[in-house]
Amino acid sequence: QVQLVESGGGLVQAGGSLRLSCAASGSIVSIGAMGWYRQAPGRQRELVATIRSGGNTRYADSVKGRFTVSRDNAKNTVYLQMNSLKPEDTAVYYCNVGAMSGIINGDYWGQGTQVTVSS
């Protein structure tokens, strides 16, 4: 099994910054893509940013130029640096990791961390 622990959410004023972290642990053989999704009240969960094991990244149009996803493979950790935050970025942010545990290739989710941006 793989466990994901997220940290770094909170309340920030518009224009401010936050950094989210997500550390994977457990019986991990290898990790593939890592990323972040978010879900605002009354809305579907949406992709924010992903990063492949080779470093290729993908971002939602709404966060390009403001958010940066990165990973530390030695620590099995993915980060999301969020700058120039807007009230519309308010959501629960979920970490997502594709990992091989034993002989099972699975898709794992963190518990979610609340990000609130005040105007």
**Which regions are unreliable across 5 or more consecutive residues at pLDDT < 50?**
none
- Calculate the mean pLDDT score and round it: 96
Helix-strand string = EEEEEEEEEEE
Q: Give the distance, in angstroms, between the N- and C-terminal Cα atoms.
A: 40 Å
| Helical proportion, percent range | under 10%
- Class by helix and strand content? mainly beta
CA-atom Rg in angstroms: 14 Å
Main sheet characteristics = 7 strands, mixed
Overall outline: elongated
Question: Can you describe this structure?
Answer:
- The chain has 119 residues and is an all-beta fold.
- The chain is 0% helix and 61% strand.
- The protein is built from no helices and eleven strands.
- The protein has strands at residues 2-7, 10-13, 18-26, 30-39, 46-51, 57-59, 67-72, 77-82, 91-101, 104-109, 113-118.
- Strands 2, 4, 5, 6, 9, 10 and 11 form a seven-stranded mixed β-sheet that branches. The chain has a four-stranded antiparallel β-sheet with strand order 1-3-8-7, with no helix packed on it.
- Strand 4 (30-39) and strand 5 (46-51) form a beta hairpin.
Short key terms for the protein model shown above:
11 strands; seven-stranded mixed sheet; 119 residues; mainly beta; 61% strand; four-stranded antiparallel sheet
Give a brief rundown of this model.
The protein has 119 residues and is mainly β. It is built from no helices and 11 strands.
Q: What order do the helices and strands come in, and which of them pair?
A:
Elements: E1 2-7, E2 10-13, E3 18-26, E4 30-39, E5 46-51, E6 57-59, E7 67-72, E8 77-82, E9 91-101, E10 104-109, E11 113-118
